[in-house]
Amino acid sequence: MMQELSMNILDVAENAVRAGASLIEITITEQSGADRLSVTIRDNGCGMTPEQLKNVTDPFFTTRTTRRVGLGVPFFKMAAELTGGSFEIDSAPGQGTAVRADFIASSVDLMPLGDINETVAALIHANPHIDFVYTRRFEDSEMQLDTRDFRRILDGIALNDPQVSGFIREFLAENTSALLSARGTDSTI
After folding, report:
1. Who contacts 20 (Cβ-Cβ below 8 Å, separation ≥6)?
2. Is it true that domain 5-181 has CATH number 3.30.565.10?
3. What is the residue-averaged pLDDT of the chain?
4. Are the C-beta atoms of residues 102 and 80 closer than 8 Å to each other?
5. End-to-end Cα separation, the chain, in angstroms
6. Domain map (residue ranges) of the chain
7. How many CA atoms lie within 13 A of 131 on its CB side?
8. pLDDT in tens, 142-179
């Protein structure tokens, strides 16, 4: 099993890349009062047929030709359900896919979120032709990174330019720190 939720997020986002998505949205919502951590990954890729959707949580089902098993989605589902949470996936051909995992935040089985900022930065750097919207909500506060905004400002400079990648990492670090410190904490799950 993956040791951090950010690795599950990376795996599902890479599935979206392989599905031809031009936009991938990653949303993480932490609500301590509701004892919830929710992760939603939505894309506008090719989507799945009803048959694929029915089998996507089976570890021995994959559409990839490079290996015979697909463990990312089943592990993500298992991670959510081990905490007493839930998992759902919606998809349709030509309409993209939405994956949502809800975790019980106080569960001893909740894996750490991990370095989600680095995961998002790496996804952007490795896929400069795809737009990403990363939203992080903590209680009543929110921060967001939308690569479409960066593209307008950068006027043709690639998102994987080393200086741009460095700026994206700084942006994520500063905004996450401000988001979490507004509630008196520097770390989360």
Report:
1. 45, 46
2. yes
3. 90
4. yes
5. 18
6. 5-181
7. 11
8. 999 999 999 999 989 999 999 999 999 999 999 999 99
